[in-house]
Amino acid sequence: MDDQSKKTSPVARQVENIPRSGIRDFFExxxxxxxxxxxxxxxPDFVTxxxxxxxxxxxxxxxxxxxxxxxxxxxxxxxxxxYVNEHFQVSYDPNDEILVxxxxxxxxxxxxxxxxxxxxxxxxxxxCYVSYAPSIVMAHGVAVPVKCESSNAFAxxxxxxxxxxxxxxxxxxxxxxxxxxxxxxxxxxVKRIAEIAVDHDLVVISDEIYSELTYEGSHVSIASMPxxxxxxxxxxxxSKAFAMTGFRVGYACAPKYLLDAMLRIHQYCMLCAxxxxxxxxxxxxxxxxxxxxxxxxxxxxxxxxxxxxxxDMGLTCHLPRGSFYAFPSIQNTGxxxxxxxxxxxxxxxxxxxPGTAFGESGEGFLRxxxxxxxxxxxxxxxxxxxxxxxx
Length: 391
Ligand SMILES: Cc1ncc(COP(=O)(O)O)c(C=O)c1O
Known about the structure:
With 391 residues, the chain is of the alpha/beta class. The protein has helices at residues 3-8, 13-16, 22-30, 50-61, 74-88, 103-115, 132-138, 158-164, 187-199, 256-269, 275-287, 289-312, 337-348, 374-390; strands spanning 37-38, 98-101, 121-126, 142-147, 169-174, 203-207, 232-237, 250-253, 325-326, 350-351, 353-354, 366-369. The strands form three sheets. The chain has a seven-stranded mixed β-sheet with strand order 2-8-7-6-5-3-4, with helices on both faces. It has a three-stranded antiparallel β-sheet with strand order 9-12-11.
């Protein structure tokens, strides 16, 4: 856009400057291509477990079609409090420390808007979920990435984090297990990051969306560390573990002073999450955990297969300790991530996402989502191996 149109465009500058999602651009190439095998979209291939769908249907049958309280149904908030206490060892008051959101996406957006004064710096680790940097910028903040290295199993190095803290740093976003790398943090690493947050008086926004999909060790939430409950915004949802992406429901837990700020934004911009989804979410938390764990078993078997297959064909792939993504290196092919993904798609009709969709530090990598059937993964690995023999 030239200077003249920049001056006259009604679009806000910080929005004008946001790049389109790299995933979206890539998937426009995929549209309409027949026989495609997609390891692209980060979404469970399972349909939502029947008992959860049934709860949604029953909610509609009973004519529950109204708004709910801005904070969400109290019954759902009580179930969230119980679930979070049981699985993450942190206790929140359902009356004023839990907010039902339209997915983790909304939780992240209102957390950032509640925290950021223009120019505040927000640190996040990279490669990371595509929305972090744009969401920070849209809230008038400055996005500060810290690179996670494959040699460190894509964990966040506490010392690397400490180095980028400035007097303007307001918060840190954590997402372990990580999309797109499958990196996790040990309890000791979480503790060291918590100490840094306390030392520098930082808020931590913890995106826990893949926590149930932890395969090695056990997941430790930073909210459970000493001194952290009062400075953590705990975000979680139903999209991944319960295969409920289309329900658009999630939650934020935080001490009252932070939750209240988020609630004030939520009540004006969102009002409330859909009641059908909220009633389905109660069923998921109260009775759906076994189904979630059964899906996790499938992801684990697929993970073991895909990581083995990738390494066998010469694409070094660290073991993703969580999530449902493998993140192999394609550096030894001499191609860029984007060239590799486009050629792979053209030549073999296998769609994977170039690592650069997740930030500059994703260059040299490819994201392969294994939340698809084993048969499809096997076929994709066959095609990928043949492709590699030619390049
Ligand atoms: C790390 C991460 N956070 C948040 C989301 C969005 O979650 P939701 O569907 O709850 O909005 C995703 C979706 O891919 C994700 O990978």
